[in-house]
Design a protein that fits this description.
binds flavin mononucleotide, alpha+beta, NADH Oxidase
């Protein structure tokens, strides 16, 4: 199936079959799609936390808009962004780049000096607004990859960031939760959205040609 057919097939699932689990292999393919997402300056300023443990899901459910969806999903992917930028974090990424490419460390120094100066002039809230935005590209690629594998998913911002950050100990890691991606297999009977038509703004209204 083409990408467009997969995107037409998928929908934000409203009820999962708790007995069906996503295989390790399929899960790894979805995670790889997220890892390959492009990010600003290639900094990849976020991490994905994979939650399979039912016990952890039960703890994260407090404050969630769709508690049953979280409970019955096979896995919950938590997209968590850096809480801030720092010179050390930027250097670590670029040292990795130069090492992988077998270039001398500091090869990109004039560029990293520019972005370090740019972030130094910003507040920590501005940093997080930027790192959080990066996660959405990975979220989109992960749900598209899931659809290609005929795995259902639900992107979600309807949860308590405080609860999820606390349960997963994200603060200690310098991370803050941004969004979730529930993965699993739909419960055809209970998923009220499964039989409904997909609704989008018509193309002629969506695209503005100048
Ligand atoms: C960033 C983001 C956050 C979302 N948060 C939720 C959510 O908390 N709960 C939920 O049921 N759906 C959530 N959705 C799903 C949207 O409501 C859904 O994608 C949209 O209505 C389009 O429908 P479709 O995905 O089924 O085609 C979210 C989607 C995105 C992209």
């Amino acid at each position: 199936m083409s990408l467009i057919q997969n995107l037409e097939w998928r929908h934000a699932v409203k009820a999962y079959d708790p007995t069906k689990k996503v295989s390790e292999q399929d899960l790894n393919t979805i995670l790889e799609a997220a890892r390959l997402a492009p990010t600003s300056s290639g900094l990849q300023p976020f991490r994905l936390i994979v939650v399979e443990s039912q016990e952890l899901k039960e703890k994260m459910v407090a404050g969630a808009l769709n508690p049953e969806v979280m409970r019955d999903s096979s896995h919950v992917l938590v997209f968590a962004a850096w809480d801030s930028y720092s010179d050390e974090k930027i250097d670590k990424v670029y040292d990795h780049h130069t090492d992988v490419r077998e270039l001398p460390r500091g090869r990109f120094g004039s560029y990293t000096d520019k972005i370090k100066a740019m972030y130094a002039a910003q507040t920590v809230d501005e940093h997080f607004a930027h790192t959080a935005r990066q996660t959405y590209i990975a979220l989109g690629l992960a749900l598209a990859q899931a659809a290609e594998l005929k795995i259902d998913s639900t992107p979600a911002e309807g949860f308590s960031n405080e609860v999820v950050d606390e349960v997963l100990g994200l603060k200690e890691l310098g991370l803050k939760s941004v969004s979730l991606l529930y993965l699993g297999y739909r419960d055809q009977e209970k998923d009220w959205l499964a039989s409904m038509k997909k609704v989008r703004v018509p193309m002629e209204e969506f695209i503005l040609k100048k």
